From TrEMBL:
CDD domains with a match to the protein in the record: PheRS_alpha_core
UniProt similarity note: Belongs to the class-II aminoacyl-tRNA synthetase family. Phe-tRNA synthetase alpha subunit type 1 subfamily.
UniProt protein name: Phenylalanine--tRNA ligase alpha subunit
Gene giving rise to this polypeptide: pheS
Organism superkingdom: Bacteria
UniProt EC number: 6.1.1.20
Organism: Maricaulis salignorans
Chief location bin: cytoplasm
Matching PANTHER family: PHENYLALANINE--TRNA LIGASE, MITOCHONDRIAL, PHENYLALANYL-TRNA SYNTHETASE
Coiled coil: none
Length: 360
């Protein structure tokens, strides 16, 4: 029975099975059935031992040839099936790289953080650097260097959070303004100085308009010939940029701070448009910030000569700016961590404030 005609039939049979295999698993079953240890071709190879030398001389090469041809046919079919599977995957698994990230971002930027970013962007555009410092400060940097006299009401435990006395008996405070950052900058750098100091500040106060922790940004310019005109120009440009209007109408009202002389509060024109507040024009005045020329005592306390250097400083509440610009009615909502409130008043983390394409 082991003649070449039988081999011919087997070859046609296996080739038909190879052609009919539609996936790699099916094709591998065909390979095992023919060329595997107990496959039809392998069994025939094994029968070579029992043949006469004449028979073996014919059947040996014939079986080897069959084995090679079937092996090549299987390889060719395998390559074809792989290519087809890849084409199918490429056609059905397209990736649109322009889609937003998944899962979609759920977090949002808190309006106070947003306003802090906007302030940094506006003042950076005017050449100011951002300076930061510790929330826990000593009496010297928070009060004494700033020309607060002994016994000034702000130094009182009524207004200021005091820490427990340390090993040297010194009572540190939670900074009541970010001015200590500016004091430290004046003591460690030589003018010209142009910085803003944004950050958290603390005072014993808790009602509709006051929270014991709030946010402030202060600014400081120290140079040889700085004057009130520069102060007014910087603050007007700042307010116009922040409230995104062409011009703002402002006025200085005389005031008093221990650390500036002269001191002023700056008001801006505004009007109510329904619930919202429009800043820049209108017939009402609104107090927006405090400012002044840095007191000569403060300059001297920082190791600089007030006859050589002078400058201006200003300070304002970030939380109030955020309320005004984004129309949140109650300051206490800013600190409730309510997801629905944040969803409404928050900002996209993917949109960064910048002067070129807009602040908010
Ligand atoms: C306000 C008023 C102000 C300053 C802060 C300052 C800092 C140094 C020297 C002098 Cl180191 N002045 N800061 C000056 C004027 C006003 O803040 O109403 N803040 C909420």
């Amino acid at each position: 029975m082991t003649d070449t005609a039988a081999l011919e039939t087997l070859e046609q049979d296996v080739l038909a099975q190879i052609a009919a295999a539609t996936d790699e698993a099916g094709l591998d079953a065909v390979r095992v059935g023919a060329l595997g240890k107990k496959g039809s071709v392998s069994l025939m190879m094994r029968s070579l031992g029992g043949m006469s030398p004449e028979e073996r001389q014919v059947m040996g090469p014939a079986l080897n040839g069959l084995k090679d041809r079937l092996g090549s046919a299987i390889e060719a079919r395998k390559a074809m099936l792989e290519a087809a599977a890849l084409d199918l995957a490429l056609a059905s698994e397209t990736i649109d790289v322009s889609l937003p990230v998944r899962p979609e971002p759920k977090g949002s930027i808190h309006p106070i953080t947003q306003v802090m970013e906007e302030l940094a962007v506006i003042f950076a555009d005017m050449g100011f650097a951002v300076a930061e410092g510790s929330d826990v400060e000593d009496d010297f940097h928070n009060f004494t260097a700033l020309n607060f006299p002994e016994g000034h009401p702000a130094r009182d435990t009524q207004d200021t959070f005091f820490m427990k006395p340390d090993a040297e008996g010194q009572r540190k405070v939670l900074r009541t303004h970010t001015s200590p950052v500016q004091i430290r900058t004046m003591m460690s750098q030589t003018p010209p100085i142009r910085i803003i100091a944004p950050g958290r500040v603390y005072r014993c106060d808790w009602d509709q308009t006051h929270t014991p922790m709030f946010h402030q940004v202060e600014g400081l310019v120290i140079d040889r010939e700085t004057h009130m005109g520069h102060l007014k120009g910087v603050l007007q440009d700042f307010l116009a940029a922040f409230f995104e209007t062409d011009e703002v109408v402002t006025r200085f009202r005389p005031h008093h701070f221990p650390f500036t002389e002269p001191s002023a509060e700056m008001d801006v024109r505004y009007e109510r448009v329904g619930q919202a507040v429009k800043v820049g024009s209108g017939d009402q005045w609104m107090e927006i910030l405090g400012c002044g020329m840095v007191h000569p005592n403060v300059i001297r306390n920082c190791g600089l000569d007030p006859d050589e250097y002078q400058g201006f400083a200003f300070g304002m509440g970030v939380d109030r700016l955020a309320m005004l610009k984004y129309g949140a009615p109650d300051l206490r909502d800013f600190f409730n961590s309510d997801q629905r409130w944040l969803g409404h008043y928050g900002f996209s983390p993917l949109l960064q404030a910048n002067m070129a394409t807009g602040l908010s």
